[in-house]
Amino acid sequence: MKLVAINTIGLTGAEILAAELARFPEILMLPGQNFITFGTHCYRPHRYDGWEVARIFENLHKHQFTRAGHCWAGLTKSMSAAMSAIYSRERHFEEFSALSDGEEETLDHFRNYAVAYARVMEEPADRAGYFGFFGSNILVNASHYPRFLERAAIVDFTNPLDFWLANIGQRMVWNNLVAIRFWLVNMLFVRRWAMRHPANFAAVDIREYAADRQGVHERMRTFLHLREPALAEAPDGFIRFSPEIVGRFEKNAAELRAIYEGWAEFDLGMRFDEWAQAFLAEPGIDGLLDRYGDFWNTTTHTNLDWVGPVEEEIVGRLVEFSGVKSRRNLSRWFYHDCFHLVCDDWENPTGTLEHYLGSLEEEIVLPAIPYYVRIALCYFEKVAGNTVKRAYSAISIRRTNLYARVAALRPHFARWALEEKFAEVERRIDEADAAIARFS
Fold it and tell me: pLDDT for 286-343, tens place per residue?
């Protein structure tokens, strides 16, 4: 039984493709988001030499939870009540233990976990030529797994850069200028692997999938040499594809293009296929990508908006290679030159802009994404603070263009954990308005 692994550089919506592949009876696809943790590290290689069976199972079965208690990774992540009633963790371990003989490599443990799960759920596993899961950029880990090329096929679920930024921005607060660099380096790493191992690699783009689901389905069937007809829908436990959500992300992507077009690194990402192969052939790039793989697997960070010196060097070489220059953009200046915010400090943006921008506010693009709203709120705080000092020449923030647009997004604030922050900003604006009133 071979592994079909869904590769993702992070928050691409890979669960969509997991559901699609789960429709094939010849693929034993695990629901949830699996095997992302090894010990105390996420998204790094798994090594089980000398481990007892119970400890291996515990590690494979790990679930991850938000601080609010919501499960965001693990086998049972999307299980319905009916599935949860059938599933037994104890039986799963018993079946897993029965399949283990002490001679397994990591990919064998992955397979045994999947087969044991099928037995617990009374699903036929004998017809399956593949088992599969999604969880992380497995290609960064692939060199650590013996005979990986013989035992695995990779299906990469990709997002164009603008769509990816829109996608990740709904999940967490990220500084997109840095996230663009993360995307560029990881896409280069994946593209190099695809060029080296074309027989083991297929890519599916979210826009391709949204436009032609049946075409993608048939291409996967051909790539994996599947014979049996697929189920009409994915089994329970998998997240269904939502055209409405994709449509909302496309709206956000269009707004993000208005902010980042003209930034050299963004423009390169939007034209990735035009230059990737030539850049990968440049002297020294191969060694830098190898070094990046080593660096990634010896760190612990999971940030999409933090890149280290190796990635900075790769992107620097790319900009030099391309000759692409950045040009000025008012929205990008506002969000990234005037203020600073990264995911590690997502509740506390900092900034230096203290003056109301007047008519220029109308030109600032405001996507319905928490990062940009948080920056706008920081701007209001700064302007309010300056108004208190200089109320003899000021305008009420509540009468401004940007405030009206931010207030229109109030229905999202609870989901974005912004209610408390907005109330704090409102108090600052009240103080500013009281100061203005003394000069009326």
Answer: 999 999 999 999 999 999 999 999 999 999 999 999 999 999 999 999 999 999 999 9
Question: Please, which residues have CB within 8 angstroms of residue 29's CB and are 6 or more apart in sequence?
Answer: 4, 18, 21, 22, 131, 132, 133, 238
Cβ atoms of 230 and 221 closer than 8 Å:
yes
Question: pLDDT of 17-70, one tens digit each?
Answer: 999 999 999 999 999 999 999 999 999 999 999 999 999 999 999 999 988 888
Is residue 124 assigned to a domain? Answer: yes
The enclosing H or E element of 370 equals: helix 370-389
The alpha-helical segments, DSSP class H, found in 224-284 are 243-260, 264-270, 272-280
For the record, the structure tokens of 186 come out as 């990881």
Region at 307 (left for phi over 0; alpha for psi -120 to 50; beta for the rest): beta
Residues 6+ apart with CB under 8 A from 229: none
DSSP strands (E only) in 135-226? 152-158, 201-205
User: Could you tell me the pTM of the whole model?
Assistant: 0.95
Give residue 67's domain range.
2-167+199-241
For residue 378, which of 402, 410, 414 has the smallest C-alpha distance?
A: 402
User: In this structure, are 81 and 214 located in the same domain?
Assistant: yes
Map tokens 């993000």 to a residue. Answer: 256
Strand ranges (E), 64-196 = 64-65, 71-73, 130-134, 152-158
Q: Is residue 6 located within the same domain as residue 137? A: yes
Of the candidates 43, 52, 40, the one whose C-alpha atom is nearest the C-alpha of residue 8 is 43
Structurally, how many domains does the chain consist of? Answer: 2
Same domain, 343 and 212: no
For the stretch 161-220, pLDDT in tens is: 999 999 999 989 999 999 999 999 999 999 999 999 999 999 999 999 999 999 999 999
**36 and 135 in contact (C-beta within 8 Å)?**
yes
Closest CA to 159 of 214, 191, 192, 203: 203
Are residue 38 and residue 152 in the same domain, yes or no?
Answer: yes
Q: Are 226 and 339 members of one domain?
A: no
Indicate the SS3 state at residue 133: strand
Asked if residue 252 lies in contact with residue 145, where contact means CB atoms within 8 angstroms, the answer is: no
